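In the previous chapter we treated chains in isolation. Here, by contrast, the input contains two separate entities that must be folded as one system, with a combined length of 262 residues.
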Amino acid sequence: MIAQNVAFGILAAAMVVAALGVVRTNNVVHAALYLVVVLAGGAAQFILLGQEFVAWVQVLVYIGAVIVLFLFGIMLTRAPMHPDESLDNDLKWPAAVTALFLAGVLGSLLIDAFHRTKIDIRQPIRTAAVTNAVFRTYIIPFEVVGVLLLAALVGAVVLARKD
Amino acid sequence: MLLNQFLLLGAFLFATGVYGVMARRNSVLVLMSVELMLAAVNINLVAFAAYQNNVAGQVFALFVLTIAAAEVGVGLAIVLLIYRNLRSSDLDDVDVLKG
C-alpha cells in the first residue's frame, strides 16, 4: 500500500509538472514532448490501478500515433520555433482565473463527496474480461465507434488533400 | 490508495487543459490541450473502474481513446486547411466571421 502511494506521488508530480509545461512552454515541439510525459504517466497510473489493457492501448494509440500526428502537424504548419515569440493570446489572465475556479469547484466537490473512499485492488483486471465486455455487452457501441473512425478517416482525407 | 487522489489529479489535468484551450494562440497547441482534458477524463473513468471492480469504466476509457484519435485526425486536417488558406496557424488570424 505504501509503495503504491509513493509510486502515485512520484508519477503525479511528474504529470503535474509536465501538464503545466504543455500549457506554458514557448516551444511547440517541447509542448508535444511534455504531452508524452503526461500520457505515459497516465498509462503508469492505469497499471497502478490494475487496469493493464487500457494502459497499453494508451501507450500505443496516444504516444505511438497521436503524438506523431501532432509532430507532423507542427512540421506541416511551420509552427514558430523561436522561444522568444509568445504562443499565448491576451486572454492569459481570464483563462487562469477560469481554470483556477474550475479546479477549485471540482476539487472541493470531490473532497466533499469521496474524502474517505478507498480503492481496494484485489487483482489486476484480465484482458479477457475487457474483451468479453467489449464484444458482448458493448458490441453495438463498438461497431458505432468503428463507423465513426471510418467517417473521421474519410473526412480527414477529404479535408487535407489538395484539389 | 484513496479514490480521491486519482480524481483530484484528473481535476487538475482537466483545469490545466481548459487553461491551455483558452490561453493558447497556436492551433496545434489548442488541440494538445484538448488531448490533456481527454486524458484527465480517462484517469477518472479508470479510477472508478478500479473502485467498483467493474470493466465498464475501462471499456469507456477505450472508447474515449478512440474518439480522441479520430478528433485529432480531423482536427489536424482542419488546422492544415486553415494554414493553407491563411498562411498562418494562429487562431487570432481566423476572424473572417468577425463583423
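The CA atoms of residues 28 and 76 of chain B lie 7 Å apart. Chain B touches chain A through 69 residues (CB under 8 Å). Compare these points with the single-chain example from earlier in the chapter.
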